[in-house]
Amino acid sequence: MVSLLEKATQNVAATIAGAMKHDPSAQALIVFDRQSFLSSLLADAYIAALPSAKAIDFNETSPDDIRAEMERLSPGDLVALVQSSSFRLNEFRFRLELFNRGLAVIEHPHLGRMPENEYEIYIDSLAYDAEYYQRVGKKLKELIDKAQRVVVYCEGTELVYDTPLEDAKLNIGDYTGMKNRGGQFPIGEVFTEPKDVAFVNGTVKLFAFADADFHVMVPPEPILVRIEKGILVEAPGAPESFIKVLDQIKADEEVWVRELGFGMNRALTRDRILTDIGSYERMCGIHLSLGQKHTIYAKAGMPKRSSKYHVDVFADVKKVTIDDVVVFEYGSYIV
């Protein structure tokens, strides 16, 4: 039987070679901590997969020494960040500073959020299924970019997008033509949002949502919500934990429904859940965002800098159609 470390090493090695296209002759730097089981396991996996890389423990190395290691790298070299929480050298995100230096980055943040029963799920989610991501991701983008109508069906509900969608963005491990190479892992997602948010209407059932601590919450029963002209207006019978999230958003802005995310990671499902919202966001299914904030797409009256909330929620979806073409059904993509 393959051990968890062996599986992790295989998965990160496939990502390094396939998604990141790392040249073995180029330099690599691994920055890690051992404050959680998963961070320690992944540190060992990267050290095994990149035997010539420099590996440094963030908690046992001074900021000046870490910067010195970064400055030895050349544009195109690879940095892997393996973090129980999130590394910071100053007020800016570590990953952004690395991207500004032209480095390729693999980031695994918030590994300490995952309990023991999620270790194997997380490692499975790191598998790089290149053929599936390329085929399904690009087909979804093709359909989304010319879409006029999308319907998200749950049991007894329909959420209708009677509007074209913004150009879809791919997070499938293909960085061709992109300014930055890499990002947060696991991967597997195509996302967009309506060009005119006011043309989103209907009802949808949510089986999970993010709380204020960026943890995935799963209520005993799916939550029915009603959306009118792009705003969540009602959640009858919702648990207090969800009402608290809505009230927090409403205190500052409308509960807009902006992102329409097509998660593709087949290791993450309705039943295989990760506590960390940033990791589970790639689950195979549909997620939406609540709140005014979306840093990728600009919308009039929704300034990027002052908008506060982008809360991920997950639809208990049965089927999704794009211009009457069924693209998702029975828990899988069929394009």
Structure write-up:
It is a single chain. Helix content is 25%, strand content 28%. With 335 residues, it is an alpha+beta fold. β1, α2 and β2 (54-57) form a beta-alpha-beta unit. The longest helix has 16 residues, at 4-19.
Name the features.
335 residues; alpha+beta; 14-stranded antiparallel sheet; five-stranded parallel sheet; globular
Strand content: 25-35%
Structural class: alpha+beta
Low-confidence stretches: none
How many β-strand runs?
19
- Cα end-to-end separation: 34 Å
Task: Give the structure's gist in a few sentences.
With 335 residues, the chain is of the alpha+beta class. The protein has eight helices and 19 strands.
What topology emerges from the helices and strands here?
Blueprint: H1 4-19, E1 28-32, H2 37-49, E2 54-57, H3 63-71, E3 78-82, H4 94-100, E4 104-108, H5 119-125, H6 130-145, E5 150-154, E6 157-161, E7 169-171, E8 182-184, E9 189-192, E10 200-210, E11 216-217, E12 223-228, E13 231-234, H7 240-250, E14 257-263, H8 277-280, E15 285-290, E16 311-315, E17 317-322, E18 325-329, E19 332-333
Parallel strand pairs: 1-2, 1-3, 3-4, 4-8
Antiparallel strand pairs: 5-6, 5-17, 6-10, 7-9, 9-14, 10-11, 10-12, 10-16, 12-13, 14-15, 15-16, 17-18, 18-19
